[in-house]
């Protein structure tokens, strides 16, 4: 029997992807926003595809700002962290 792969929708592209191919962005009740690479932190989760070009295009088009309701000053470190995590995953594992 095949194991069911959990799918989530990317808030940048509106496309469904396997959960492991996405990064989770969390907004807490205290209106803090951060990247959750573990996928287990408390808060409202949104998912972003691990694609550098799409993240850069979203930054230029301010997509996260409109989707999450924060200003670009607040989300700039979030974009930086997403990009850092994408680069970190591109390094081949030994």
UniProtKB/TrEMBL annotation:
Entry-linked Pfam families: YlxR
Coiled-coil segments: none
Domain of life: Bacteria
Matches recorded under InterPro entries: YlxR, YlxR-like_sf, YlxR_dom
All copies of domain YlxR, residue ranges: 8-82
Protein name as it appears in the record: RNase P modulator RnpM
